[in-house]
Amino acid sequence: MATLTATAPKAKLPGLLRHRAVGKLLLLAAVAAVLVPLAHGRWASGAWPHALTVDLSKPLASASNWVIDNRDSHPLFLYFFGYVSNAVVLSVRAVYLVLLAAGWAGVTAAAALLAWRAAGARLALGTAAAFLACGLLGMWVPTMQTLALMVVAVLVSVLLGALLGLAAGLSDRTFRALRPVLDTMQVLPAFAYLLPVVLVFGIGVPAAVLATVVYAAPPMARLTALGLRGADKEVLEAVESLGTTARQRLVTARLPLARREMLLGLNQTIMMALSMAVIASVIGAGGLGDRVYQALASVDVGAALAAGIPIVLLAVVLDRVTGAAGAEGERPGGRAGWAYAAVATVAVALAARLAGRLEWPGAWTVPIAEPVNRAVDWMTAHLYSGVPYVGGTADWAAHFTTWILDPVRAGLQWLPWWSVLLVVAALAWLIGTWRTALTAVLAMAATGVLGVWKPSLDTLSQVLAAVAVTLVLGFATGIAAARSDRFERLLRPVLDVFQTMPQFVYLIPVVALFGVGRAPAVAAAVVYALPAVVRITAQGLRQVDPAALESARSLGATSAQQLRQVQLPLARPALLLAVNQGVVLVLAVVIIGGLVGGGALGYDVVFGLAQGDLATGLVAGAAIVCLGLMLDRVTQPTERRAKKGA
Amino acid sequence: MALAVPTRKAPTGTPDDAPVFSVDGLWKVFGPKAARIPEDPELAALPAAELRERTGCTAAVRDVGFDVRKGEVFVVMGLSGSGKSTLVRCLTRLIEPTTGSIAIDGEDVRAMDRARLRELRRHRAAMVFQHFGLLPHRTVLDNIAYGLEIQGVGRAERRERAADFVAKVGLEGLEQRRPSQLSGGQRQRVGLARALAVDPEVLLFDEPFSALDPLIRRDMQEEVVRLHREEGRTMVFITHDLSEALKLGDRIALMRDGRIVQLGTPEEIVGSPADDYVRAFVRDVPREQVMTVRSAMRAASAQETEDGPAVSPDATVSEAIEAVARTGSPARVMDHGRCLGVVDHERLLGVVAGTEPGAIAGAEQGAVAGSEQYAVAGTEQGAVDGAGRNAAAATGQDIAAGTEPGAVTGTEQAKGVV
Question: Where would one find coiled-coil regions in this protein (chain A) (predicted)?
């Protein structure tokens, strides 16, 4: 009886859904029945027909040559890009010199005191420890280089983002125009931003800073706009009823009311800037990212780890401090506290300078590269393969490649090109509207037109495999976390740390474990996307209406029945969001996997950059954008995602 | 609609002639091409649902006109969706009216430019909101001083002035709290103090107490009554709560679907509802606490003018019931030593039972003209009959309420009036 009552409404709903879905599929089948024979008859081939590609490499190459030829003479470069580039170089240089002039003691003191003012004593201690650890690992100078680049990029991003957000927050029209652009920018992999800036600015610090700005500004703009728009209407009305001018309203009410969102935007911008500043080592950012990049290129895991740890520490410290600053609360001391902090910083910096201890003392470094590499060697010797019964990590990787990645890739590439488009259309239409389906199909077709159909499908196969693994693990862990408080408490700090780490860092351990190739790239993608999927799943399940759950319990449903019949159906939006986030995050890392032998589109980008063959890189970059767009639309439920989960 | 005893405040003294707000032919239509609705008599006459269907427009306020007199509490009451909140926002153009005229002290509000309108909002009309509308990032003191800050008053001076109002609304000791640390009632006191701090000519209240618990709400209502008694400030008060309207209002405009269906004193609304809608609305009102003896009295015979308890013509019927029950004889309605008429138990019961049709109709004019012409003849017979029939039912609860030794109801006022 109990089950009957509980299932009755449920049985009806999917029934209805199926009806609508069947309708959509039938319509699609009808359209396909007309178009496919036509297309097949004209361009019969398994892969994308050659007749339908547009070779962009020649025009792109000539464009890139033109830029290189004219960089020093054309007025556009002389009077605009040249100034931008110089300004960026100068300001990064200036910040870097200030950091060096403050010395390690001064910088550490300044960071700790800043953390103390913004987030309290505990985080101040953590910050000091993190900076000292960077020094101990012998990474003080690269850390300062990365920090200098970050400071400039974050300032520009925040300024740009806040201005855009202000415009979008105050004007409906700007908001409507800006929103789809910002939404789309957030689903694109970081790699896609690199090549256009390189085309204009060449490899170097300006390109790195500008790529970082473009990547990191959207969250600030987005959250500022949302904060301004989300303000309590009645408060604004009350403020208006007292006779405020528009300016007074903005300064005394709207901006303060949006404070929380703007600080969240600052936090996200800083985290994305760090992530990008590290990746931008590929285009000459220098600093910590460059050390990791060089080390990975020579599969020197020890050196990569020595540079990777400071990145992680920096990420955690920046996230916690800015997060705590947004979490409300006055620190004791008020303005006087800031003054004390400033005085203390100057005093420490001066003392260090007088003592002649500006640079990190060489004797204080702990070389970890050597022992780590020994450990990795030992692992390679003992765990890589041939471990009785379980096999070795390299064996697993090889098996994963032969049994999963290869068949999926072969299958995708064997499918006739039009059937791939058909599948994309069906998936996107089932979950969204015909509009999203159209965008998805066009995006997918664009990869073919660009002439990178095969590498795109290769990347796609890696994404599919990684997403499948991520979802199985993520849903299982998420369900477990939603059902057990204790498990969730254990999991939370782990997720917190994992979600703050930049994508790049995940490549280090997988190279240590699995060597290079496609399997490690997939593994890194899984590890990167997993925390977001787990978190969204657990939250979605926990936010299921308690009344519905209670009524199911009161009818005597077992806990499996509750999960299957109440929690999962009601958490459907969250689960779909988890899939979408999973896909977007996996794609970002699979692309970066080109650096560790993932091949496909990511490799094309890296190759293009390394060889100065911008045309190849740009085409691959455009294909990445298309692929990202397609994957996002295919997995996007009808309502827009709230905000980036990671 | 449970109506807790609305402790009626004393009616405000004779209103000045010049109205503070004068509204005429006011329309507010939301939707595409809103301006055509009021212009087109056919569209203007359509009921709400049909109008939405035909034009996509919603008429929130339809052809509303009234005057708010100086020093009175003017209540606009209606259920949600009746347009009352839109109406009050139109007064200071927080919502721009579609057509019609609004004048404050004879000055056309709709013709004001932005600077002049700001001036109006800063100095002449201040508003109190249902959900308080406080700035969460400011302390109580700074919230109260906010209106002064907007006017450009210096920090020290505005804080000093705001501190006076902290005391006035009873928030001493909470100056440095944030709104999130206050209870709902305290927050609304902040909202009230903020409005008072700019010393406005008119206070506008938009359902200020709807979000509060019943007990707190009563405290706040009494606070408003007290403020009004002390300062005599003109108030426009929006509410959906009939007992609140009856308790606070000198005059009440009852709105339905954007129109004013009846405008009058509480006594007129309760005593002679304009239509069935109003009648249904006021059905459960304890009439004896709203109606005055002026409307219930009859002409006195010669010997009746000489003895019996005396009540003021503005005393409520429930006060008269107590006086009559205590002495056992009809009460004389005395105005400045002149006997206007008498109320006996039959008359009083008639009011309680609501079986005295037409008695009110003449009340205003009759009372003003004097006791001699007070028209009772036509209805007397019927009224008494009706009263007699219903008396049996009414006696048990209503009479007892006033006369039981322990019963508090009405005694206090009676003491003050008799």
Answer: none
| Same-domain check for residues A340 and A439 | no
**Which residues have a Cβ under 8 Å from the Cβ of A103 and sit 6 or more positions away?**
A349, A352, A353, A357, A358, A359
DSSP A492: H
CA B391 and chain centroid, separation: 30
pLDDT means per 10 residues, chain A with 646 residues, are 39 53 75 73 66 73 77 74 83 86 82 82 86 84 87 91 90 86 80 80 84 89 88 88 88 87 87 85 81 80 82 85 70 70 82 75 74 77 69 74 78 77 81 79 81 83 88 89 84 80 78 78 87 86 82 81 82 84 85 79 80 77 83 70 38
ipTM: 0.73
Domain end among A346, A370, A394: A370
B129 touches chain A (CB under 8 A): yes
Distance from CA of A240 to the nearest CA of B (A): 7
The structural domain count of chain A equals 2
The shortest C-alpha distance from B283 to chain A (Å) reads 34
Strand B251-256's sheet: what is its strand order? B125-128, B202-206, B234-239, B73-77, B251-256, B259-264
Determine contact, residues A107/A317, Cβ cutoff 8 Å: no
Give the Cα separation of B203 and B201 in Å (integer): 7
The string of DSSP letters for A86-144 reads HHHHHHHHHHHHHHHHHHHHHHHHHHHHHHHHHH-HHHHHHHHHHHHHHHHTT-HHHHH
- Rounded Cα distance between A470 and A582, Å, is 7
The residue to which tokens 């032969």 are assigned: A402
Find, in chain A, the residue whose alpha carbon is nearest to that of B127. Answer: A241
A569 token code pair: 């159906």
B273 CB-contact burial (10 Å; exposed 0-12 / middle 13-18 / buried 19+): buried
Q: How many CB atoms lie within 10 A of CB A247?
A: 8
Q: What share of chain B is helix, strand, coil (3-state, %, to 5)?
A: 45, 20, 35
CB B97 within 8 A of CB B27: yes
Q: In chain B, what are the domains?
A: 19-282 (3.40.50.300), 287-417 (3.90.1280.20)
Contact B183, B234 (CB under 8 A): no
Backbone torsion region of residue B31, taken as left when φ is above 0, otherwise alpha when ψ lies between -120 and 50, otherwise beta: left
Note whether B176 contacts A: Cβ–Cβ < 8 A: no
Inter-chain CB pairs, A–B, below 8 Å: 66
Q: Between A453-483 and A406-414, two packed helices, what is the crossing angle to 10 degrees?
A: 130
